[in-house]
Automatic annotation (TrEMBL):
<feature type="binding site">
    <location>
        <begin position="416"/>
        <end position="423"/>
    </location>
    <ligand>
        <name>ATP</name>
    </ligand>
</feature>
<dbReference type="GO" id="GO:0003777">
    <property type="term" value="F:microtubule motor activity"/>
</dbReference>
<dbReference type="InterPro" id="IPR027417">
    <property type="entry name" value="P-loop_NTPase"/>
</dbReference>
<dbReference type="InterPro" id="IPR036961">
    <property type="entry name" value="Kinesin_motor_dom_sf"/>
</dbReference>
<protein>
    <recommendedName>
        <fullName>Kinesin motor domain-containing protein</fullName>
    </recommendedName>
</protein>
<comment type="similarity">
    <text>Belongs to the TRAFAC class myosin-kinesin ATPase superfamily. Kinesin family.</text>
</comment>
<dbReference type="InterPro" id="IPR001752">
    <property type="entry name" value="Kinesin_motor_dom"/>
</dbReference>
<feature type="domain" description="Kinesin motor">
    <location>
        <begin position="332"/>
        <end position="489"/>
    </location>
</feature>
<dbReference type="InterPro" id="IPR031852">
    <property type="entry name" value="Vik1/Cik1_MT-bd"/>
</dbReference>
<dbReference type="GO" id="GO:0008017">
    <property type="term" value="F:microtubule binding"/>
</dbReference>
<dbReference type="InterPro" id="IPR027640">
    <property type="entry name" value="Kinesin-like_fam"/>
</dbReference>
<dbReference type="GO" id="GO:0007018">
    <property type="term" value="P:microtubule-based movement"/>
</dbReference>
<keyword id="KW-0067">ATP-binding</keyword>
<dbReference type="GO" id="GO:0005524">
    <property type="term" value="F:ATP binding"/>
</dbReference>
<keyword id="KW-0547">Nucleotide-binding</keyword>
<feature type="coiled-coil region">
    <location>
        <begin position="146"/>
        <end position="219"/>
    </location>
</feature>
<keyword id="KW-0505">Motor protein</keyword>
Length: 489
């Protein structure tokens, strides 16, 4: 193989590269026409002109230009979504599909070109290897030719390294393009799903709006019918009111004439009333003068009553003092004895009471003993026979209630064995009437009655305490604190 043949092969390779570049330029021109057709076919007038012009400026199918194409398509999708408030128009989706198909065709075509170039590089490498062998053979001939061949061989190795590097870059671009293709396929599928959901949502909203429109139309028709009925009723009522007003006007005119006659007839009476009013006014003035005189006389009498009232408090205080002195003369400690009658079923038993005196004497007999020991005499302030009532028992203790209200300490209690009638005397039977009230209820009733009668001059404060004496312990029955409830006797 001679140098002329190598030069011829190199020119052939350069011619192939020129043809490939020409084919790429034709593809770019076809691509530009394709975009124009897509825009005119789908009516994408709302896509910005800057985005379309950026697509039209692409001149090759290298990795950088294809990546720019992806970026522009993504921006168009973003602008379309923002303008449609989240909805992707059908035309934009069709454009994206066509662009992706074009990108796939480009990727496939570029892969074919890469395979062809790879075969071309391998055949060229084989030719270079054979040329190296030929040059090595020629190197044995002359030293000058050997140096020339070595230079060419070095140049061929450099070109081979460049080709290998370019092949690696093209393979990397191919991998990146395939990855971008998969990514945009996923985006297109998601956009298709969003478009389908938007269609369903719009269809649902449309049906709902149609139903609401139909319901509103029916309601409006019903409302119009109701208003027409109301209008007819109102017209009838207006006519009735007009007729009623006319009749009322006639009646009022008649009444006006009657009032006029009445006023004319009573005008004379009014003059007489004026004269009577003047005489009454004079009588009132005279009565007023008499009232002033009586009022001054009443003030004089009232002053005397005030002086008497002041003296009354002094006399009342002396009366209370004398009343309580009389009670003290009767004794500070008074002991009364009440004899309990036989209970039902005990009427056949014998009584041990032999004598009841008027001054409190009581004689009791003991059948088991003889002589003087068979009789015992007891002395009390008063003895109540079995037949006395609750009111008679309270009558002797009633004066002590007034002593309480006069500021004296008074204690009334019943003492006796179990079953002797203490509870009956002090409280009365359960659920009893007023006639059977015991000493406690009667004393409280009398206490409040007297305090109410004196409320104009004295204000009383009443307190209650309930205690129980049992087993030499005093228990406060109204105390909630258990630690303070018991007191030693």
């Amino acid at each position: 193989m001679n140098p002329e043949a190598a030069t011829e092969n190199g020119d052939s390779a350069s011619l192939n590269e020129i043809l490939n570049f020409k084919g790429a330029a034709e593809d770019n021109l076809a691509e530009s026409k394709l975009f124009d057709g897509i825009q005119s076919k789908h009516g994408l007038a709302d896509i910005p002109a800057a985005k379309i012009s950026e697509l039209m400026k692409l001149n090759s199918l290298e990795s950088a230009s294809t990546h720019s194409l992806f970026s522009v398509v993504s921006n168009i999708l973003d602008d379309s979504i923002e303008r449609k408030n989240g909805d992707i128009p059908q035309c934009v989706a069709s454009l994206v599909k066509l662009v992706v198909q074009e990108i796939e065709a480009r990727v496939s075509k570029q892969a074919d070109n890469l395979r062809k170039q790879n075969g071309l590089y391998k055949s060229r490498e084989e030719r270079y290897q054979s040329r190296v062998k030929a040059l090595e053979t020629l190197a044995l001939g002359t030293t000058e030719e050997h140096e020339v061949i070595m230079k060419k061989l070095q140049q061929i190795k450099i070109e081979k390294a460049k080709m290998e590097e370019k092949e690696k870059l093209q393979e990397q671009d191919l991998i990146r393009l395939m990855e971008d293709n998969d990514h945009y396929k996923m985006q297109i599928s998601s956009l298709d799903a969003e478009l389908e959901s938007s269609k369903h949502a719009h269809e649902k909203d449309r049906l709902q709006l149609e139903a609401q429109l139909e319901q509103t139309r029916v309601e409006s028709e019903n409302k119009i019918l109701e208003l027409q009925c109301l209008l007819s009723e109102s017209t009838k009522k207006v006519q009735e009111l007009e007729a009623f007003s006319e009749s009322k006007l006639v009646k009022l005119k008649r009444r006006e004439l009657g009032y006029k006659h009445f006023i004319d007839s009573h005008f004379g009476s009014l003059q007489e009333l004026r004269m009577s009013s003047e005489s009454i006014r004079k009588e009132v003035m005279r009565t007023k003068e008499i009232y002033v005189e009586e009022l001054s006389h009443f003030g004089f009498n009232l002053k005397g009553l005030v002086d008497a009232a002041q003296n009354y408090h002094t006399v009342l205080e002396e009366n209370r003092k004398l009343y309580n002195e009389v009670q003290d003369l009767k004794g500070n400690i008074r002991v009364y004895c009440r004899i309990r009658p036989f209970l039902p079923g005990q009427s056949q038993k014998l009584t041990t009471i032999e004598y009841i005196g008027e001054n409190g004497e009581l004689v009791v007999t003991n059948p088991s003993k003889l002589g003087k020991d068979s009789h015992r005499l007891f002395k009390f302030n008063k003895v109540f026979a079995p037949a006395v009532t609750q009111e008679e028992v309270f009558r002797d203790t009633q004066p002590l209630i007034r002593s309480v209200l006069d500021g004296y300490n008074v204690c009334i209690f019943a003492y006796g064995q179990t079953g002797s009638g203490k509870t009956y005397t002090m409280s009365g039977p359960s659920m009893s009437s007023v006639e059977n009230w015991g000493v406690n209820y009667r004393a409280l009733n009398d206490l409040f009655n007297i305090s109410q009668s004196r409320k104009s001059s004295i204000a009383y404060e009443v307190g209650v305490q309930m205690v129980e004496i049992y087993n030499e312990q005093v228990r406060d029955l109204l105390c909630s604190d258990t630690s303070q409830k018991r007191y030693p006797c």
